[in-house]
Amino acid sequence: MDQILLQSPLLTPTPIWLIALPLLVAFLSPLWGRARWPLLFGVHLGLFALALWLLAGVQDGPLIETLVIAPPLGIHLHADAVSLLLVALLTFAVALVAAFLWQGARAPHWQSRQAFVLIMLLSAGCNGMLLTGDLFNLYVFIEIAGVSAYLLSALRRDAAALEAGLKYLIIGAVSAVFILFATVLTYITTGTLNLAAIGMAFADIPAAMQILIGLLLLVGLGIKAELFPFNVWVPEIYRGSDPEASALFSGVVVKAFLFVLFNLVFLILADPAVVGRWLMILGGVTMVIAELTALRQRDLRRMLAYSSLGQVGLITLALGFAETTVVAGGLFHLVNHTLAKLLLFMVAALMLSRASSGHLDALTGIARRLPLAAGLFVLGSLSMLGLPPLAGFMSKLWIMAGFAEAGVFWPIALILLGALLEAAYFFRWIALFYRPVPAPRLASDPVGLPTASSAVTWPLLVLAVLLIGFGLAPVLLEPALNLAAEVLLDRSGAIEAVMGVRP
Amino acid sequence: MSRAAPHPVRISARLMLVVCGWLFLLQVAVILLTLGQTATETVGDGLLARTMETGAANAVTAVVVSFRGFDTLGEVTVLFLAATGIGLLFSARPERTGTNTGPGSLDEGLAEGNPPVPTMAAPPPERVLSQPNEILANGIRLIYPVLLLFGVYVVVHGHLSPGGGFQGGVIIATAFMLRMLADPSFVLPPIVIAVLESFSGSGFVLFGLIGLVLAGTFLGNVLPHSAASTGLLVSAGVIPLIYILVGIKVGAEVGAIFQDMLEHHPHQEH
Amino acid sequence: MTALIALTLFVWMIGGALFAVRQTDLLQAIIGLSLLSLGAVGQFFLLQAPDVALTEAAIGVAAGTFVLLMALRQMGRDESADPSHDQRDQRDQRGESHP
Amino acid sequence: MLDALDTPGVHHALYAVGSMALFSIGLYGLLTRRHLLKIFMSLAIMEMAVYLLFIGLTTQPGRTAPILSDGLVEFAGTADPVPQALTLTALVIALAVLALGVSMSIRYHQLTGTTDVETMSALKDP
Question: Membrane-spanning residues where (chain A) (predicted)?
Fold first, then answer.
């Protein structure tokens, strides 16, 4: 690995820039003045390009960046085909949200310096979680991402937002204590914090301790990754927060935590099959319960929150199977869900700016006022429930084909059931949006609103184009996803890259 | 909104007692069973063996600032976030208070012209810090410079003796806090805090990037740090410099947090 | 010998923790928490961790307590003073603290 | 006779039992208390227990602090510095989260007069 580092580090950017640059820009925030949103957008676009550039360089093996002292003694960044793919996805998502806020957010709380700092550091925290190769460093980045998320959800500072922020903070702090406890027990028993070194030593520690550490991590990360039964808090947070913040939670933070959870499972456990089965069951239960509950929701944000939980369950179901085709499909679905959920939450933000609340009745007939937004909502929800030719269809098909190939059929039944339930509630909302309303109700349309410029729709259009494009030509992503799935499952390769020996 | 059925506090408290007791026994059993098989060789031993290379006399400081300096960068970031958030929470009155519907995001402009919605909000808190008595005020005035000096000493000697940026920074912030208690007119100007936290935070990252360029790794030690100078005030290369930045940062952030919590009148956002 | 000191400190800390959790007067609960932190300072000294002890003294005993006291000034001392508590709950909690 | 107690086994068992007792007390408080400040205090107790367990179980009795002073010239027979360094980091993070949570509670209390998590229900389904 040294030959990479010995080249001039300024000419060959290293993965550390993905974390250091957002930190630097956030610390210097008083300097930026009015240029904040363009800067946020530009920085993330730059990071996206950097991640893609680095991704091209890790096709043959991971890039290990030493920080101060070589692993396993020190902290290192572990940039491989799957973590960089997710970094690229998440920085792209943040860039789109930044563009949306730049053009559309007129509310004073989004104009503040603090909002800029929070989004920047949320992204730095997520990048760090994806890239770090050290367990305690992971905890630190979880706290960075967590604290920014608590504050983002309380950003509006009214009672509802503060309630959401407080609940998020309490549940997040509980999860952090459990993760810290697991880290401590790991250090006590293995004497190391490096993930690869833990992977080599973990099988030798007593079985009871393995189970205890595993359970603590499962509770801690399960809370953050919104898995059943640790996810009861999610809908309330999403309802209290602004939809723009919820888009970041659902599209960015949860995805980072899902990766962390599965990376730990695949990297540390010598035989992830048993745990994988349990995670599949957990994912299946999450999906079915969430989709069933989503049917009854009468608030747009709560409905989207439950739908998000359902998709997270589906992704968990696919990744837990630990088989290359299905995992590649799961990662594909992860990408699609991020794109579609960003679209849906941003459309929800547009709709809520025109309606008195997110309640069913208040949104009836909204399509007359916001035809484009309603159309994009239809597109996003069709992709979500998996209708051809949209991307969600391809990824669900991919996952089901993988399961069928392996001869396991119960997940297929669950996925189809989930899609049916999704169709039921999404079509209910769509029908509502397009229901003709008597004139007096339209007259209550708030006037004198500072209208967002029409440029606000272009991030949404980008997302829509991507959803259609990936649906028509999944081959665009196929090589990257297959490689990512192989790398994610290749435990001995990852350990060898750091430790120099095969386990 | 009607509340759900009355919470059966008593039963649930007993149940939780049983659950916690059971978890306690389980955890203790697992840990005791493992005690014989804890790690004999840890990363710490490897780092101790290499601490001499850094020229720091305090191995904990060498680990915190150099070997695991990346953690410390993350940690001051969390503190920065918390201070930013607390400043935001206390900066100005939110325009509206609790409604069940939870207003949308982009419609905040709507509320501007409306009269304030009456709510069940508590009366504004009395911000009377009762006028401090003379003895307390004079005592604090006496102790204030000593405490500041002690804080600076702890920061600067972080690589030689127990203490360092965090401890010294919190001591300095505590000195400010006592001063604020004794003397209500004493304030840390927000602009100074903003400059200090920006300067120290970006300085930390810049030290990291300089290390990346000159020493090959992020946060690499680019200044001379011979083992022979161990124990001198000027030793250990960038470690004391970074720890001083951490001290400034922690002092500014914790001082700002204290100040925000002490005085609840809104101050200007910038 | 150190084992005995550690044991004594643990008794002290557990007392502080129980006090912090059970006491319904929040001011006293906060005092219990700072007693716990003080015990932890002693433990860390005993464990040859002077850095951590100094940090715990500065953060746990001073800063953390101050932060909680500031909240107390705003929110009142009584744990069950919340208007939404109904009578029954209060009675139950009192009953529970004297079993 | 008392020195016979100072074996690593006795020490570590003591720290395991003691810190887990604190952890359980914190967990009990977290699960049963409803006042916001009490919840943050319970979390602080749990965190404290984790730090104590960490340093207690990684330090052997008879080691010295990992600092060169008073004529020490090399790090031999000193305690493991890594747990101490990590605890430092975690302590500061915990203070940040505590201060933030308490500030949010103060603000929430100012707006609604509520201090009880179970009556925070504006976001529940109507």
Answer: 15-32, 39-58, 81-102, 114-132, 138-156, 168-188, 208-234, 246-269, 275-292, 304-322, 334-352, 372-390, 410-434, 455-477
